[in-house]
Amino acid sequence: MVQTKKHIPLAVNGGIGFGAKLKPKQLAALGKYLDDDTEIELTTLQQLIVQIPEDELEEAKKEFEKADLHYYKVGKYVKNLRTCNFCKGEEEEGMPVAKELNRRIAGQEVPFTLRPAYTGCPIGCGEPLINDIGVMKDKDTYELYIGGISKGREAKPGHLVQAGLQPEELYQMVDRILEIYRENGKKREKFHRFVERYGMEQIMEGLQAA
Ligand code: SF4
């Protein structure tokens, strides 16, 4: 009987920066763990989905870190933050805040895969209003939206949770929203469905009680 190796999917990208870019050394690091005819999926979330042999997973992760590749779990987790290209500059568009928010939330377990998005100014290239959680920088503060839908006939913008947030307030509010979702969401309930069923009123009460 032919024994097939177990593979573990990882979502990989070059981290948050000026656009979604990869360097040759990063592609070489990826190639080391993939068979010649392996298919690599490129997602709309600026990620490559690769299948790594389970017995090489830990070694591959170390190699990816050395090459400055970022990797995330695939499944019912918060995805990496989708961002705009920060065309007006790192500080002005809040790249450090986007990186910190991503560090805090990406990979958190939730009832269903959750897509967060960030955009550095109100032009909104990162499409924050039509993602599960959306952050928009406006001058020196941040706006937080939840429950947007990007696909199908039910596509619609999310609800504004709060404007005028400072970075620390933003991090805490997003964290608390994820907690409310974990505590009250049904198994495999999509985030936007949860927002509609559970209701903005209760979510806002939960935020105030924190
Ligand atoms: S959202 Fe603003 S800062 Fe970001 S790429 Fe678009 S125009 Fe540039």
Entry keywords:
210 residues; alpha+beta; Alpha-Beta Plaits; Sulfite Reductase Hemoprotein, domain 1; 2 domains; 4-stranded antiparallel sheet; binds iron/sulfur cluster
Describe this protein's structure.
This protein has helices at about 25-30, 55-65, 95-105, 165-185, 190-200, 200-210, and strands at about 5-15, 40, 50-55, 70-75, 80-85, 115-120, 135-140, 140-145, 160-165. About 30% of the residues lie in helices and about 20% in strands. The protein has 2 domains: about 5-75, Alpha-Beta Plaits (2-Layer Sandwich); about 80-210, Sulfite Reductase Hemoprotein, domain 1 (2-Layer Sandwich), CATH 3.30.413.10. It has a 5-stranded mixed β-sheet with strand order 5-6-7-8-9, covered by helices on one side. It has a 4-stranded antiparallel β-sheet with strand order 2-3-1-4, covered by helices on one side. The chain binds iron/sulfur cluster. Iron/sulfur cluster (SF4) binds next to loops.
What structural class do you assign from the helix and strand content? Answer: alpha+beta
Please give the alpha-carbon distance between the first and last residues. 56 Å
CATH domain fold name of the largest domain: Sulfite Reductase Hemoprotein, domain 1
Give the names of the bound compounds: iron/sulfur cluster
According to CATH, the homologous superfamily of the largest domain is Sulfite Reductase Hemoprotein, domain 1
The count of helical stretches stands at: 6
Domains, number = 2
Mean pLDDT: 91
Radius of gyration, CA atoms, in whole angstroms? 18 Å
Q: Please describe the biggest sheet, giving its number of strands, its sense, and whether it closes into a barrel.
A: 5 strands, mixed
CATH architecture title of the largest domain: 2-Layer Sandwich
Please count the beta strands (DSSP E, at least 2 residues each).
9
User: Could you name the CATH class of the largest domain?
Assistant: Alpha Beta
Global morphology? globular
**Strand-and-helix sequence, N→C?**
EHEEHEEHEEEEHHH
Beta-strand content estimate:
15-25%
Question: What is the helical fraction, as a range of percent?
Answer: 25-40%
Low-confidence residue ranges: none
